[in-house]
TrEMBL record:
Keywords: ATP-binding, Membrane, Nucleotide-binding, Transmembrane, Transmembrane helix, Transport. The lineage of its organism: Eukaryota, Fungi, Fungi incertae sedis, Zoopagomycota, Kickxellomycotina. InterPro entries: AAA+_ATPase, ABC2_TM, ABC_transporter-like_ATP-bd, ABCG_dom, ABCG_transporters, P-loop_NTPase. PANTHER family: ABC TRANSPORTER G FAMILY MEMBER 28, PROTEIN BROWN. This is ATP-binding cassette sub-family G member 8. It is found in: Membrane. It is a multi-pass membrane protein. The chain crosses the membrane at residues 370-391, 403-426, 447-473, 485-507, 514-533, 594-617. Residues 4-253 form the ABC transporter domain.
Length: 628
């Protein structure tokens, strides 16, 4: 039989913005024991620390201070081993709406189950078994769906999320509000399935729950009542009624015990008097549990002489000194303990893992077509808009002015109108990745490669149509190798813009910061691109900017490719300054860099952006968690 013990566990966070702000106690001196085959319900008002306990057990507390010990089978937990036997079903499990129920569980199996120990056939068999056990077989080929996309019901989504987390045969199962948003019958069916799994697989199941009905509540073996960070009761549900009755808290006839217990641990915010009375009641209940636990004497009952049938405050005579209460709450001393780093043993080799992610990403992208449609639509609109704006270019001055202006706008388009929309799109992708990264499903490198191989082809193909159309509409040189170079140079620009957006999100602390500084940096790239300002007139202290601007290399490369080999008839504009060849124009524009050097340097810049993105995602975006 497995056991999970929390011994004198406390957790606090800094209150206020100042570095030396007071510590706010979230969990204070929590002690409890769970055994395999048991289900524990954690009940408490909002902010009582229910989810914090789950995060503490799972090792997902990001900030704050923690002390005490959590033991598994009487021993200090090893982070790597413990996380392999634990599954955590979050309140919002964020299932992808464009995968079917079966696909959701299959991809989880492919990524989460060790391919060295379990064959693909065994994984599929396991998926089918859990589809049956969680009553999902009847709609396994239905899309999960979302608000915008029709799909399965809320209860079916809950069961799908749970089934995906049960694939690893966890010894400990944590669930955060698994019945939220469900009607009473659906909530009961979900908890009943969990009860059957818990008893049949000898699992320790711990679930926060909000206002369960009597049938649902009775499925649990134990209950933990929390309020103001402390325990009001922890033990078998069958003994809870006697415990509170002994204290004078008798459950009214026909009232749901779970609702009654929720009243006990709730704070009355309706009035100042009610607030103080409820604080007094809760503090006394916490004190009594800490002092005596379940062994109460009859002489102690007079401390709890309350009438429970009148209001949530339950007491008209109680008084409390709020300053004394604050001193109690702020008197705890907390220490931080962080796990030692453990090298992760991945479930798949690099290439099979990348292949799974790539397959899943393309499947989602094909079904969710807004990304492709929007990029192709804006590219076609830009092709006609820019193409016909510069359609008639006659004479030397008009021709040179139009070609430099068109190349500048094309480069600006491929920089701004790729990078900026991708900031929003990639941010959503990275948020999903952060959730899956907690499960250690895949490497950052395989994720980045699969993401690039999914999105870049769409971005490239849509803009290929645009730049090809403009090439012929605006009569660029009809020489095959020049057309190929034109496509290659602009392709490097597309790659740079994609990598830049990914890098900006990876190193910025949040999306808002990235969306502010990314356009600013891109604007600097444009200023030092060679069209708006003569680069030789720029102060030496800023000259280096052009060498990191992929805008400059694109602009210079395209003009070098287009103007080389051109001749102009200066007789069409007598008396005006005129150059006979395109090479003379390039000298006047001070473009001396070779085309292949421009291509190479753009690839180098893109590689640097990708490297920065990898570093940012792997190290800067990695959350450090507290561990005890």
């Amino acid at each position: 039989m497995s056991t999970l013990n929390l011994n004198n566990v406390s957790y606090s966070v800094k209150s206020g913005l100042k570095k030396k702000g007071a510590q706010k106690i979230i969990i204070n001196d929590l002690t409890m024991e769970m055994r395999s085959g048991e289900m524990l319900a954690i009940i408490g008002s909002s902010g009582s620390g229910k989810t914090t306990i789950l995060n503490m057990i799972a090792g997902r507390l990001g900030k704050g201070s923690v002390m005490g010990e959590i033991l598994y089978n009487g021993e200090v937990r090893n982070p790597k081993k413990f996380k392999n036997i634990l599954s955590y079903v979050e309140q919002d499990d964020n299932l992808n709406p464009y995968l079917t129920v079966r696909e959701t569980i299959v991809y989880m199996a492919k990524l989460k189950l060790d391919s060295r120990k379990i064959s693909t056939e065994e994984k599929v068999e396991k998926v089918n078994r859990y589809l049956d056990e969680m009553k999902l077989s009847g709609f396994k080929d239905s899309l999960v769906g979302s608000v915008e996309t029709r799909g399965i019901s809320g209860g079916e989504k809950k069961r799908t999320g749970i089934a995906a987390k049960l694939l690893t045969n966890p010894k400990i199962l944590l669930l955060d509000e698994p019945t939220t948003g469900l009607d009473s019958n659906t909530a009961y069916s979900v908890i009943k399935l969990l009860k059957d799994f818990t008893t049949s697989k000898d699992v320790i199941t711990i679930s926060t729950i909000h206002q369960p009905n009597y049938k649902t509540f009775s499925l649990f073996d134990k209950v933990l009542l929390l309020s103001l960070g402390g325990i009001v009761y922890s033990g078998p549900i069958s003994e809870a009624e006697k415990y509170f009755t002994d204290l004078g808290f008798k459950i009214p006839e026909y009232e749901n015990p779970a609702d009654f217990y929720s009243k006990i641990v709730s704070i009355d915010y309706g009035s100042e008097v009610g607030y103080l009375k409820s604080i007094a009641r809760i503090e006394r209940l916490k004190f009594k549990w800490a002092e005596c636990g379940y062994k109460l004497k009859e002489s102690d009952q007079e401390l709890f002489n309350f009438d429970f049938n009148r209001s949530p405050s339950f007491d008209d005579s109680a008084s409390v000194n709020v300053e004394d209460y604050d001193s109690i709450i702020s008197s705890s001393s907390i220490e931080i303990s962080r796990p030692s780093s453990n090298k992760i043993k991945w479930n798949n080799r690099w290439y099979p893992e990348m292949k799974i992610l790539l397959e899943r990403a393309w499947l989602i992208q094909i079904r969710e077509r807004s990304f492709m449609i929007s990029f192709f639509a804006i590219s076609i609109a830009a092709m006609f808009g820019l193409g016909f704006t510069f359609y008639n270019s006659n004479g030397f001055h008009r021709s040179v002015q139009d070609i430099t202006g068109l190349v500048f706008l094309l480069t600006l388009y491929l920089m701004l109108l790729i990078a900026l929309p991708l900031l929003l799109i990639l941010n959503g992708e990275l948020e999903n990745m952060k959730r899956e990264r907690l499960l250690r499903l895949y490497r950052v490198s395989t994720y980045m490669v699969s993401l690039s191989l999914t999105m870049l082809p769409v971005v490239w193909a849509s803009n290929f149509i645009m730049i090809t159309g403009i090439y012929f509409i605006d009569k660029f040189q009809l020489v095959f190798y020049k057309y190929v170079l034109f496509i290659i140079i602009f392709s490097t620009t597309i790659i740079c813009s994609f990598a830049f957006a990914l890098a900006a999100l990876a190193v910025a602390p949040n999306f808002e910061t990235a969306s502010i500084f990314a356009p600013l940096l891109l604007a600097f790239f444009g200023v030092f691109g060679g069209n708006l300002v003569n680069l030789n007139s720029i102060p030496n202290v800023l000259q280096w900017m052009k060498y990191i601007s992929y805008f400059y290399y694109t602009y210079a490369g395209i003009l070098k490719n287009q103007l080389t080999g051109l001749t102009y008839d200066c007789s069409l504009e007598p008396g005006a300054e005129c150059y006979n060849t395109g090479e003379e124009v390039l000298v006047a524009l001070e473009i001396t860099i070779s085309i292949w050097k421009c291509i190479l340097l753009n690839f180098i810049i893109a590689s640097i952006f990708f490297a920065v993105a990898y570093y940012g995602i792997r190290y800067r975006k990695r959350q450090k968690y507290l561990w005890i």
